[in-house]
Amino acid sequence: MKTKILTVLLVVVAATLAGLKYQHYLANPWTRDALVRANIVEITPRVTGPVVAIYISDNQRVKSGDLLFEIDDSVYLTASQQANANLAQAKAVLARANNEQQRMSALEKRTPGSVPVITLNNLQNDVLSAQANVKAASAALKGAELNLSFTKVYASKDGYITNFNLAEGAHVVANQPVVALIDESSFWIEGFFKETDIEAMQQGNMAKITLMSYPDTPLKGQVSSIGYGIAQADGSTSTHMLPSVNPNFEWIRLAQRLPVKITVTELPANVQLRVGTTASVMINKQVSANERS
Question: Cys staple from 231: which of 43, 83, 242, 283, with CB 3.0 to 4.6 Å?
């Protein structure tokens, strides 16, 4: 009899614990399918040419405005000098046209009818044409000077250089990325939650983040957005740039997983976020940042 009572009590306790655990999960859904993300800035030269100097190395931290590398500027320096000479020539032509127009206009005023109307019109057209040539030459000079300045490539963000394989003497092509820069101010966690967990989840819910690389240092986070769509893995619908989230199994019907973007609100000094590393995330759907404050 005592054995039966003990068995019943154990079953009741186990069922109660299981129920409490399930209720806790409903209020605090979690996933081990999460990744560290960040904005990746492609460092792209604006001009073509051989690299003559490099000032960075792979995995180096850089600041916005730091000089990364230089491209041979000889061609662009020559083009700038030629454009400057063309502008000077255009200005000289304009000056002569203005002088000739003023001289003939003064003569016409002193002696009306001494200068044919067609001549005055032609002189005016010469001035207008020369003015247009000066503007074109000035624009060409600005373009040449810009290209010359583009031979020096700078960091556009504070962050970390990655996938750097550039060497002096390498030929880079305009508008072709040569290195990646991870924006250090843009890190976030992307967790993939089952659609059954999304109910009542909302922007502002607090999150607990555990990085696999720092298992003993949990991070605090906050839900910043919840995905509104994903691409079908079987290709039955057009992706239209929707995120692709592969199901864990294909032979049974499983709840789809939606991406949830989580901002890290507190980052300990000893923790370094790295793009692509894995994490576990638990969301507290009952607590938001506003309620907490």
Answer: 242
- To which residue do tokens 């079987």 refer? 234
Instruction: Calculate the CA 53 to chain-centre distance.
Output: 25
Nearby residues of 5 by Cβ (< 8 Å), 6 or more positions away: none
Instruction: Compute the radius of gyration of the chain from its Cα atoms.
Output: 34
- More confident site: 22 or 228: 228
* pLDDT at residue 66 tops 90: yes
Give the architecture (CATH level 2) of 187-292. Answer: Beta Barrel (2.40)
Classify domain 39-71+152-184 at the CATH topology level: OB fold (Dihydrolipoamide Acetyltransferase, E2P) (2.40.50)
Q: Is the pLDDT of residue 235 over 90?
A: no
Distant-in-sequence, close-in-space partners of 91: CB < 8 Å, separation ≥ 6: 134, 137
Looking at 31-45, 76-90, 153-167, 238-252, which range is the least confident one? 238-252
Q: Which residues of 219-239 are buried (b: 16+ CB within 10 A; e: fewer)?
A: bebbbbeebeebbeeeeeeee
Region(s) of the chain under CATH 2.40.50.100: 39-71+152-184
- Which DSSP symbol is given to 196? G
Instruction: Give the C-alpha separation, 237 to 277, whole Å.
Output: 30
Whether 172 contacts 49, CB under 8 Å = yes
What is the greatest pairwise CA distance in the chain? 138
Encoding tokens for residue 18?
């299981």
β pairing state of 179-183 and 257-266: unpaired
Torsion sign across C-alpha atoms 102, 104, 107, 108 = negative
- Which phi and psi angles does 200 have, rounded to 5°? 70, -5
Q: What single-letter DSSP state applies at residue 251?
A: S
Candidates 1.10.10, 1.10.3470, 1.20.120, 1.10.287; correct CATH number of 73-150?
1.10.287
